[in-house]
Amino acid sequence: MDRNTNIPGAELFNLNAYNALIETAASAAKTGDEDAIDDVAFIKKATDSWHGYVSTVDMTETRIKVARFRCEGEEYREVVAEADRARRNAHEAAIANAAIVNRIARAYGISEKIFRGDLNDRYQVADFCLAVTVALFDEARTAKH
């Protein structure tokens, strides 16, 4: 069973287009195409940022929950503010990278978008990041290497 279809935002991540982009860019990179080599590196960086957003949300939520019991007043507010900054920065990177990867895919002739949502909808981008993480985890778990 594909868990990716059971999570919010699963429809926002186009795994087939993502895999086609990786395959196409990697093939071009193998020929020594410097731009393709850079594109493959960027796709990796973008994917890491999407996973990083999910990880940041998890860590910051845990940090806030723990701080609720361990800190008071100004110290608690500082923990929450720091967590919000970390999450916002990770989210901004995820949004920018989704837009860039869609442009890279188009440049390689991939007609379907990797991120199929609205870049101005922060909830869609957050759900996309989770969908990417779950889909790639599931794909790796079931891959025959």
Features:
145 residues, 75% helix
Can you give a write-up of this model?
The protein has a domain at 10-27 and 34-54 and 91-140. The two termini are 20 Å apart. The mean pLDDT is 93. It has helices at 15-30, 34-70, 73-107, 122-142. It contains 4 helices and no strands. It has 145 residues and is mainly alpha-helical.
State the gist of this model.
The protein is mostly helical and 145 residues long. It is 75% helix and 0% strand.
Mean pLDDT: 93
Strand/helix succession:
HHHH
Structural class: mainly alpha
User: What is the percentage of strand-forming residues?
Assistant: under 5%
Low-confidence stretches: none
**What percent of residues adopt helix (DSSP H or I)?**
over 70%
Number of helices: 4
Cα gyration radius (Å): 17 Å
Largest sheet: none
Q: What would the principal axes of the Cα set say about the shape?
A: elongated
Number of strands: 0
Distance between the termini: 20 Å
